[in-house]
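Sequence, please.
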């Protein structure tokens, strides 16, 4: 495996819409976490090839204190020349000194959870930072030489979406992850923000137009990049490659050796059960399940899915039935066939879910 995800679950505050495994810092928890993480890293090392991509996500990895960051980023993992090393960060946890430290520790890409450059939106989201802090963090990260991606939440009531998108482009970031907020049922924000598909569709149309005008390509449903600035780590997920994972609630996708099993997915338990040594849950993914997942993930991207390669990987003759089911969708302008690849058109990216369901029917 040449990709690794490390989950860091700690956050300064818990956002009212959070759907990730995130916890507040409690006495001793970070210390215990780092010890267990180092042990997990030692155990997995023999199964890793030099890593092409290493991603520290969370949670808010940049929230850790400096000595803790040194330990987090010194897990003695094999790194390939030119590896992409991404760390998720919140604006309030970045300053010049912290950026210098991250640089010295090998981080070369920051994914900054800006969400919006408008104070009233940030307040409504319950975020700890304000617009001024977001500007400063992005500008300092760019000045320090990091590849910077910003996360934006689009389509919120009262948000000037165009202004947020233009600001991101003006600041000079080269990657934007744009999400619409679907509050998890039961979270405090679910009571305040209702889903509005029209508002969300308008927000994505604005993103295509504004970011497209300055050279960004929507290469995945929710991700826009200037050419060459795509998130290499996330591409491993969308291509359904293999990756290892460390930390609480982290899930890997690993090669399997059992007959009839294409891959193993190992999912660690949440923090306190993980600290107590509870074993990961292991799912065995069959070739057919892999084919379905590969369609689902691949059709999120403009590059689509290489059906011939998928047939070789799974040993399943799926090209013909999938292409047959895809024909009316190609006719309608949602999908296109490019050599061995089946891919969504720009318009198709807005309806991936229904496209995937139609194709899955052909595999059942
Ligand atoms: S910063 Fe992200 S991970 Fe942390 S609580 Fe907020 S949404 Fe959840």
């Amino acid at each position: 495996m040449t990709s690794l995800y490390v989950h860091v679950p700690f956050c300064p505050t818990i956002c009212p819409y959070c759907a990730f495994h995130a916890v507040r810092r409690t006495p001793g928890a970070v210390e215990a976490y780092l010890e267990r993480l180092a042990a997990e890293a030692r155990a997995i090392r023999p199964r890793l090839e030099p890593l092409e991509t290493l991603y520290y996500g969370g949670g808010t990895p940049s929230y850790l204190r400096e000595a803790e960051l040194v330990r987090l980023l010194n897990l003695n993992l094999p790194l390939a020349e030119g590896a992409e090393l991404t760390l998720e960060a919140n604006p309030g946890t970045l300053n010049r000194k912290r950026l210098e430290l991250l640089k010295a520790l090998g981080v070369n890409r920051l994914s900054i959870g800006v969400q919006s450059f408008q104070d009233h939106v940030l307040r409504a989201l319950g975020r700890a930072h304000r617009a001024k802090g977001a500007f400063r963090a992005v500008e300092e990260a760019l000045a320090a030489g990091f590849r910077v991606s910003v996360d934006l939440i689009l389509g919120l009531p009262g948000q000037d979406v165009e202004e947020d998108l233009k600001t991101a482009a003006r600041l000079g970031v080269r990657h934007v992850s744009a999400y619409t907020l679907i509050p998890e049922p039961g979270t405090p924000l679910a009571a305040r923000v209702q889903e509005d598909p029209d508002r969300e569709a308008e927000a994505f149309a604005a993103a295509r137009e504004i970011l497209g005008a300055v050279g960004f390509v929507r290469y995945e449903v929710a991700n826009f990049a200037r050419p060459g600035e795509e998130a290499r780590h996330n591409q491993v997920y969308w291509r359904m490659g293999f990756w290892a994972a460390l930390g609480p609630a982290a899930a890997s996708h690993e090669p399997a050796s059992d007959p009839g099993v294409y891959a193993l997915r190992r999912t660690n338990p949440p923090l306190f059960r993980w600290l107590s040594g509870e074993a990961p849950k292991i799912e065995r993914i069959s070739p057919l399940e892999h084919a379905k997942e590969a369609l689902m993930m691949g059709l999120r991207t403009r590059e689509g899915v290489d059906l011939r390669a998928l047939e070789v990987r799974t040993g399943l003759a799926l090209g013909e039935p999938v292409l047959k089911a895809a024909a009316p969708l190609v006719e309608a302008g949602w999908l296109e066939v490019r050599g061995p690849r089946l891919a969504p058109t720009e318009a198709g990216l807005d309806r991936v879910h229904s496209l995937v369901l139609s194709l899955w029917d052909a595999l059942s």
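Residues 185 and 191 are 9 Å apart (CA to CA).
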